[in-house]
Amino acid sequence: MKAVLQRVKSASVTVDNQLISSIGQGILVFAGVGREDTEKDVDIMASRVLKAKLWPDETNPKAAWKRNVQDIEGEVLCVSQFTLYGHIKKNKPDFHNAADVETARRLYDRFVQKVSDLYKTERVKNGVFQAMMEVELKNDGPVGVEYRSEDAAVGQSLFSFQCDSSRFLKRSIY
Q1: Which of 22, 34, 44, 52 is nearest to 137 (CA)?
Q2: Quick one: which of 24, 56, 66, 162 could link to 168 by a disulfide (CB 3.0–4.6 Å)?
């Protein structure tokens, strides 16, 4: 499973000009399910998203990366994005590494439910699976990080922090 986390001041999802979900301060999670992903990957990702220390210490703003979304009592907006598993092949997007629709829906729904179970249900919102969504966000920082569930399994670092925005886009948004 792959996720791109954006620390936001606010975010919302609209489908067919209808507001579906919105949050205030928190994390916007673009989550994609790969064809090799399992329930274990989903459970790892849900836990890691909530534990990601993306905010500074309240008493010492210079002490960066000290608090997570639960510590600040923020909100989480989850948006399914199979294109995280895409790459460009002969100038066209190729998504063969993404899970099939049924598997992706089942595992993505489990991800959202697991995040809700581990946090406060009323603070976890969702987009619409397999819909054309308009996602608006007001970045906080900006802070954007990428996470892959397989990184945790092999003991690599939790996040791949990207300070150079052009490098972030090349690695995270296909």
Answers
A1: 22
A2: 162
Query: Any bridge partners for residue 148, and if so which?
Result: 2
Per-residue pLDDT of 46-80, as tens digits, reads 999 999 999 999 888 788 899 999 999 999 999 99
Catalytic choice (25, 70, 83, 113): 83
Q: Is 81 tagged catalytic? A: yes
pLDDT digits (tens, 9 = 90+) for 158-172: 344 444 443 333 333
Number of domains in the chain: 1
> Is there a catalytic annotation at residue 103?
no
Q: Residue 71's domain is classified under what CATH number?
A: 3.50.80.10
Whether residue 126 contacts residue 78, with contact meaning beta carbons closer than 8 Å, is answered with yes
Determine which one of 30, 82, 111, 168 is catalytic: 82
Other beta carbons within 10 angstroms of residue 94's beta carbon come to 13
CA–CA–CA angle 160, 31, 152 (5° rounding): 45
**Three-class DSSP category at 17:** coil
Which pTM value belongs to this model? 0.85
Q: State how far the alpha carbon of 100 is from the alpha carbons of 3, 130, 141, 148, in Å.
A: 17, 12, 35, 18
